[in-house]
Amino acid sequence: MPDVELDFSRTEYADRLQKVRAAMEKAGVEVLFTCDPSNMAWLTGYDGWSFYVHQGVLIGPRGDPVFWGRNMDAIGATKTCYMDVADIHGYSDDYVMSTERHAMQHLSDLIREYGWENARIGVEMENYYFSAKAHQVLLAELNGPFVDATALINWCRAVKSETELKYMRRAAQISERMHRRILEIFEPGVLKNEVAAEIYRTAIWGGEENGVRFGGDVSAICPLLPTGDEAAAAHLTWNDKPVPNNSGTFFEISGVHRHYHAPLCRTIWLGTPPNSVPRIEAIALEGIEAGISAARAGNTAGDVASAFYAVLGRHGVSREGRCGYPIGISYPPDWGERTFSIRPTDTTVLEPNMTFHFMPALWMPDWGLEITETLRIRESGAAEPMSDYPRKLFVKN
Amino acid sequence: MPDVELDFSRTEYADRLQKVRAAMEKAGVEVLFTCDPSNMAWLTGYDGWSFYVHQGVLIGPRGDPVFWGRNMDAIGATKTCYMDVADIHGYSDDYVMSTERHAMQHLSDLIREYGWENARIGVEMENYYFSAKAHQVLLAELNGPFVDATALINWCRAVKSETELKYMRRAAQISERMHRRILEIFEPGVLKNEVAAEIYRTAIWGGEENGVRFGGDVSAICPLLPTGDEAAAAHLTWNDKPVPNNSGTFFEISGVHRHYHAPLCRTIWLGTPPNSVPRIEAIALEGIEAGISAARAGNTAGDVASAFYAVLGRHGVSREGRCGYPIGISYPPDWGERTFSIRPTDTTVLEPNMTFHFMPALWMPDWGLEITETLRIRESGAAEPMSDYPRKLFVKN
Q: What ipTM did this prediction achieve?
């Protein structure tokens, strides 16, 4: 048994593996290949910024998961995963950025070595980093049949363990610290990138628990802080210009600890906002309250969205789209867990210790309001907001 | 013509489009779909952390490029791209995280609207964010024939313009500032994440040029700073533990400006290094000098690698793999340009104003040495290191 310091107990990893095997059986998958870095980490502990080359984890009918990646990342696996080195395999750099050979040929050889060449193989057709070419090469190499196992593991991650919640609470504390720091420094004339620099510093510096420091981690989405009409476009980042007075800026950010996220968004208005702004704020807050109140075990994800949309409808505010998604461990490019959505048509039943980012942002043509919460579903009653930070539009003038 | 502040002149964007159309013709591609965010940005100016949902740019036989993405990101496109709004198209949130419909169905409708349904369509089979599922849906929707256009645009980006080089020099200045700051604060007992926090702060704070500040941008790879035997695994990030004395740590980082990168890696030894360390350092430095000297117009990428490996061979040091890759504009997960490689077998002929990260790291079993340079190929003579920072192993004791 390798001497590796893990973020979770071996029992917890064993439970996860069992959960995944049960889901595989249900989906008719005999061997599962996952290359979604968050799935890899959740299943094996694997950690590293190596998902820009082909890599993955194989889960066969028995035994431990099998790590497969570039040689130098296989070394990383021996330092972060719980599996024995016998189940950690590397390929040479000849397979990296080559037009002559493809890493999936090496993976196919490995699958044959394990005797799984005739198994029903599940692949994540729509998860990140499984390229169209990777799929094409696997199809040419192996007999299959192949099963689309998109999000199979992601669904297993929905209900969080106590340790996962502990990490998410730390992430939530970091999110609070980030917003407090933003509120201190954000003022007319400050350069946008200076604000982003402080956000990063605060995020990675981390937090404190019973007098003991803990660190922040890389976020799966970079801080977003668009101002004024930029905020109507949801995913702009920052520039190096001074922040103008009499404008609204939202801060879409997440504290992260051991790759677990707890996003929290707030909006700051510099100067005196026009009358429409507090009106929209009040409607948003009422909608958020309604959503949180509907976010309880036994209700559906759709119920949460409907409660929020009902408030908007009552006030004649129109909006389209999702207003939330499950959250937990993640790597770039997305901190969402990519299973259910908080939208009226979603029938997923909420269970205790599911966690999601309730994200009822209101993007107007010339400004945007983001006041959001990361929520945990309780055994009973309304959901628990994981951060403790004033839920309002902040005005500085 | 939309009133958008662009990072490059419209003439430069027009030149790029022309270059891509020439490459398309050579590859027999009539309509090209790119979803690699760095290709999208280079071609159109599009900027935003939105590549976690399906999006892309279509280049048809004539006219401007066509932006296609989620509705809220289409708004982002109107604020960052040079094209007219008539060439910017959005899809509704119904297509996001849906098992009933796929965004590529929407894209197929758009392709039909433009009258391109019978065109030879190029898709980036092996670039980022083109999922196996996306390809499958496109194949089912359209007649094709489809052509693998992986890296077609990436290759067009190899030779940098004056403005691109200006941005890269700024990025290179940021890289220097980051290393100077690291050297100041790195000492036994400091928490790893505190160091990472300062690296981020310095990177985003940016630099100064003729008394005018410029900002740093998000890096396509997060800072890597493994210590001791962790450094044998190339892609570990950081933890929240104190840095031990008598250990080596490498810092694989890049300053970034307007999404242009100029990576620069250095290694710091805390305490007194064992004799093997300065010996390896001397070999590495000799190898780097040899590589830089071979990095000149008319030589091949392979010549650079061979010059480096010849030095290693003379000293009996073994190493496998690539020792560099082209560099420029990029978004996560990789700052490399993903075309040629600095390795002995690569026959790519180097041209003036090509830029690459010469990355001859030496990963030992129990430590790692990274001393690297971002190089620009000159009209004649050895390549220009874009940063100006002491090229050596730093020892603090």
A: 0.96
